[in-house]
UniProtKB/TrEMBL annotation, chain A:
Record organism: Kaistia hirudinis
UniProt protein name: sn-glycerol-3-phosphate transport system permease protein UgpA
Function noted in UniProt: Part of the ABC transporter complex UgpBAEC involved in sn-glycerol-3-phosphate (G3P) import. Probably responsible for the translocation of the substrate across the membrane.
Family: Belongs to the binding-protein-dependent transport system permease family.
Annotated membrane topology: Multi-pass membrane protein
Record's keyword terms, sorted: Cell inner membrane, Cell membrane, Membrane, Transmembrane, Transmembrane helix, Transport
Membrane-crossing residue ranges in chain numbering: 12-30, 75-96, 108-129, 156-180, 201-220, 265-287
GO BP terms, alphabetized: transmembrane transport
Domain ABC transmembrane type-1 per the UniProt entry, residue ranges: 71-283
TrEMBL record, chain B:
SMART domains the UniProt entry points to: AAA
NCBIfam families tied to this protein: PRK11650.1
Name of the featured protein: sn-glycerol 3-phosphate transport system ATP-binding protein
GO CC annotation: ATP-binding cassette (ABC) transporter complex, substrate-binding subunit-containing
Signal peptide start-end: none
Top-level taxon of the source organism: Bacteria
């Protein structure tokens, strides 16, 4: 006789899933639904419910040069930070892969920046990059006013790109390193026997075999640059100077909570969400077709 | 072109020594097989020749040039790896041609040489395929082609056949032999498979525990194993070894009743020795026959062409190979006769062969 108390597998499965489902519902589907609702309606000036306006909110946005500015800024930010974060991480990983003593220590140390909340990170970099007293203040001594993120839009963009890249270098490094370690040693040795030097091996053997990882990180980095940048922008530049760092995600917050244009902000967040979803779909479609090592 | 001199080469990882001083002269064009159990240092030795492993002390020279400090690509060796190590993102043609591409050979000549090589290894029809779309035997050929195309002075093989199934292994073995005859490059082939070793080698090097136990032609190694280890390792089934003492009348005494007559004055009286007899050399006779060892049949192994009768001598197992069919079954009492000229004798202390003459000549190579 079966003595243990048993549940039907469906019931117990649902029970275990329930807390997670609840969280996903409360923090994703519900606000997502609300945003959809706001995006297609307008609030009556003096209260009294929302009026259905169809795509009017979107049409407004797409005609607005300020919105297009934020899209451009987001693309510059995404491209810059992804290039730096992935490029530096790849170089570090290739160098580390050649001399692998204590790699478990590298692994945990390099992933720490990723665990730091964006606002804390932003604050730290605000000090580091401060024009009066930060690391770059030396430049200002030599050439007055050459570096000032508070006044110069390009400086501000550089500042947030640097801060964001710093956070993702460690994250990318971990992925690159484990992918490099996954390449059979004998392949590298075979290439060495074939007369290929260390640098040539990187380009001929290691990089091609890293393509799945490269692509995965590319999508993750771009996606995160759209989403995870809010805290850094808010602490370091507040979108300024003169909207030079007003990324899409920051503009959503600013229009919605500072400008109280819920419908406009909701429409922007729908656009951003669609962008991120498209990127994610692209990643899954593409990665499944990539080569594997065997 | 392609002679290799290995002089007192040692390898240690920290304090852990894996190769203890190997000396070896390999003539140009020779096919050398290094045979030994796993962990005996044979692969390490090969990788030191290739330049994939640093040499802790001693010297390796290829064509008279000391290569200790040279990069693999400067040594003029090509290597075939156990797992083939094909570049998965390149086609068969690109895999074979990679070394030429790195060397900067012009494209037209490269393609011509790749096509030529593909013909030698029988892969003309597969040049555009990726390694993943090939069978095990074909991958093996690509790996061979990749080594051949460079026309190297020295071929290094690191257990290249161990991932193939038995039938393919025999076929590839023959092909490697044929290829060697055709190209004439010096080859060093590492394996733990003694059949491979016996069939391929011009000269065999048996290694154990980081030392060379014997160097010689396959026949020499089989007929006159230089040490007790080689005696037990080379040959299938393994040579029967029994420990005992030699008495004053040139008789080997295993226990109360079991004795074996030895050739005259082979070993001094009172010497503790290990006596070895090949399963093929021992004879089965009816139980109780004068001068035979009493044994009980344990089981009979049917090999098709012959059979091996495994017997038990009060706890010591002893194999006898016979050609004719037999009705013997487990538990039957039999006698085993050993002729004096078939006896191999080894010192129980040093494990060295006792010849009654000077020290074993094969060991002089060490």
């Amino acid at each position: 006789m079966e003595k243990r108390v048993t549940f039907s597998s469906t019931t117990i499965g649902l029970l275990f899933a329930f807390p997670m489902l609840l969280l996903v519902f409360v923090f994703f589907y519900w606000p997502g639904g609300q945003a959809l609702f706001w995006a297609f309606t307008l609030e009556q000036p003096w209260g009294g419910g929302n009026k259905w306006v169809g795509f009017q909110n979107f049409a407004h946005l797409l005609k607005d040069p300020i919105y297009w500015n934020s899209i451009t800024r987001s693309l510059v930010f995404g491209a810059g930070s992804t290039a730096i974060a992935m490029g530096v991480a790849l170089v570090l990983a290739v160098l580390t892969d050649r001399e692998m003593k204590g790699h478990s220590a590298y692994r945990s140390i390099f992933v720490w920046p990723y665990a730091i909340a964006a606002p804390a990170l932003g604050l730290a970099f605000r000090f580091i990059l401060a024009p009066e007293a930060g690391l770059l203040s030396i430049l200002n001594r030599v050439w007055p006013d050459i570096w000032n993120p508070a006044l110069d839009g390009n400086d501000a963009m550089i500042a947030i790109i640097v801060a964001f890249s710093w956070k993702y270098i460690g994250y990318n490094f971990i992925f690159f390193l484990s992918a490099l370690q996954g390449i059979p040693r004998s392949l590298i040795e075979a290439a060495a026997m074939d007369g290929s030097g260390p640098l040539r091996r990187v380009f001929d053997i290691q990089l091609p075999l890293l393509t799945p990882t490269l692509f995965f990180l590319l999508v993750i980095n771009i996606t995160e640059s759209f989403q995870d940048s809010f805290g850094i922008v808010d602490i370091m530049t507040q979108g300024g100077p003169a909207r030079a760092t007003e990324l899409m995600v920051y503009k959503i917050y600013f229009d919605g909570f500072k400008g109280l244009d819920y419908s406009g902000a909701a429409a922007q967040s729908i656009i951003l969400m669609v962008l991120v979803i498209l990127l994610t779909i692209l990643q899954f479609r593409f990665i499944e077709r990539r080569i594997h090592y065997k | 072109m392609g002679s290799i001199a290995i002089r007192n080469v040692r390898k240690a990882y920290g304090k852990n020594a894996v190769v203890h001083g190997v000396d070896l002269e390999i003539a140009s064009g020779e096919f050398i097989v290094v045979l030994g159990p796993s962990g005996c240092g044979k692969s390490t030795l090969l990788r030191m020749i290739a330049g994939l492993e640093e040499i802790s002390s001693g010297e390796i020279a290829i064509d008279g040039r000391v290569v200790n400090k040279l990069e693999p690509r400067e040594r003029g060796c090509a290597m075939v790896f156990q797992n083939y190590a094909l570049y998965p993102h390149m086609s068969v043609g690109e895999n074979i041609g990679y070394a030429l591409k790195v060397a900067g050979v012009p494209k037209a000549e490269r393609l011509r040489r790749v096509a030529e090589t593909a013909k030698i290894v029988g892969l003309e029809a597969f040049l555009d395929r990726k390694p993943a779309a090939l069978s095990g035997g074909q991958r093996q050929r690509v790996a061979m082609g990749r080594a051949i195309v460079r026309e190297p002075g020295v071929f290094l093989f690191d257990e290249p056949l161990s991932n193939l199934d038995a039938k393919l292994r025999v076929a590839m073995r023959a092909e490697i032999r044929r290829l060697h005859r055709r190209l004439g490059a010096t080859s060093v082939f590492v394996t733990h498979d003694q059949i491979e070793a016996m069939t391929l080698a011009d000269r065999l090097i048996v290694m154990n525990g980081g030392r060379v136990e014997q160097v010689g032609t396959p026949a020499e190694v089989y007929n006159r194993p230089a040490t007790r280890f080689v005696a037990g390792f080379v040959g299938s089934p393994a040579m029967n070894l029994m420990e005992g003492v030699v008495d004053a009348h040139d008789v080997f005494i295993y226990d109360q009743t079991r004795r074996v007559a030895l050739p005259p004055s082979l070993a001094p009286a009172g010497a503790r020795v290990a006596l070895g007899v090949r399963a093929e050399a021992a004879r089965l006779v009816p139980a109780g026959t004068e001068g035979s060892l009493d044994a009980v049949v344990d089981f009979v192994e049917e090999l098709g062409a012959g059979r091996v009768v495994h017997t038990d001598l009060d706890g010591l197992s002893f194999a006898v190979a016979i050609a004719e069919t037999t009705t013997l079954k487990a538990g039957d009492a039999v006698g085993i006769r050993i002729a004096p000229q078939d006896v191999h004798l080894y010192s129980a202390e040093s494990g060295l062969r006792i010849d009654g003459k000077a020290a074993a000549p094969a060991m002089a190579a060490n």
